[in-house]
Amino acid sequence: MSILDTFDLTGRTALVTGGYRGLGLAFATGLAEAGADLVIGARDGDASARAALELSERTGRRALGLALDVTDPASCEAAVQSAVEFGGSLEVLVNNAGACFHAPALDVTAQELRTVLDTNVGGVFEMSRAVARVMIPAGGGSIVNIGSMSGDIVNRPQLQPIYNASKAAVHHLTKSLAMEWAEHRIRVNAVAPGYVKTEMAPVDDPALRQRWIDDAPMQRYAMPEEIAPAVLYFAADASSFATGSVLTVDGGYTVV
Ligand code: NDP
User: Fold this and answer.
1) What are phi and psi of 188, to 5 degrees?
2) Which atom of ligand 1 is nearest to the CA of 25?
3) Does the keyword Isomerase apply (predicted)?
4) Please, which residues bridge with residue 40 across strands?
5) How far apart are CA 173 and CA 67, in angstroms?
6) Is 163 a catalytic site residue?
7) Dihedral angle, C-alpha 215, 218, 224, 226, nearest 10 °
């Protein structure tokens, strides 16, 4: 087997939460290009279905789009069941869905607090538990969580205290689940991106330019496709000895 073969996902099924746009779409596309059949889930079921159709036409892989709210445990269970019925098995979960609000701590509303924690932490936990119930009897699998450099640093100038805390929680939850499920051959790892051009990150806002771009070693943001190979690495056998790892992909932002 050549080293490139260890990145091959042919015959496997992957579920990507929030996979119809932004980073999630780049992850879904990358996994499909590596041979996986894809299930995309987000609250907007129509957008998920459209993205799945386009993905299938572009990559030649089978793809299913469905409605999923990761803050609702019953919805997580239902999505995993649909994915198993669609794929016949489920080998990869990418916990990508996330929420972020910019506000100083004193202005964060109770609703924003709950939304960010329930989506970014509760969603990762409930989706991971739902797939573990399938992966354990099947003999294992790979879970890739999308954390953030915000789990390690405090971003400026925008204030996002709960988001930062939620991503630190994602990193540590990754390690906790990795330890707990290693005996079941479920590997759990995380990718921590820096600034990436998506709807969540207004990278072209001039007010953010000094801190986000000028202060960064590479002096630029990333495109979503630049983060996808790290997700593929953890999803595939290429990372067979990696679990509990958090891989930062941030253009050097957090080294300065
Ligand atoms: P986007 O806002 O572009 O996409 C977020 C996706 O998550 C959407 O598809 C959205 O669909 C889905 N989503 C949100 N809430 C839920 C929910 N409750 N249930 C299911 N799906 C949900 O964000 P990005 O692509 O930028 O971010 C993707 C991930 O990467 C997030 O976890 C984010 O924190 C992380 N990240 C992003 C960075 C960046 O610079 N962009 C940097 C570091 C990390 P819908 O609203 O229809 O549910």
Assistant:
1) -130, 115
2) 25
3) no
4) 16, 65
5) 25
6) yes
7) -160
Tell which atom from ligand 1 comes closest to the C-alpha of 75.
19
φ and ψ at residue 190, rounded to 5 degrees: -135, 150
Classify residue 222 by its DSSP letter: B
The model's pLDDT over 37-56, given as tens digits with 9 standing for 90+, comes to 999 999 999 999 999 999 99
- What's the length of the chain? 256
Task: Decide if 191 contacts 230 (C-beta within 8 A).
Answer: yes
Kindly report the pTM of this predicted structure: 0.98
The set of protein residues with a Cβ atom below 6 angstroms from ligand 1 is 17-18, 20-24, 42-44, 68-71, 96-100, 119, 123, 146, 148, 193, 195-196, 198-201
| Torsion of the alpha carbons at 120, 124, 125 and 131, rounded to the nearest 10 | 160
Whole-angstrom Cα distance, residue 144 to residue 26?
14
The CATH number assigned to the domain with range 3-246 reads 3.40.50.720
Sequence spans of domains, the chain: 3-246
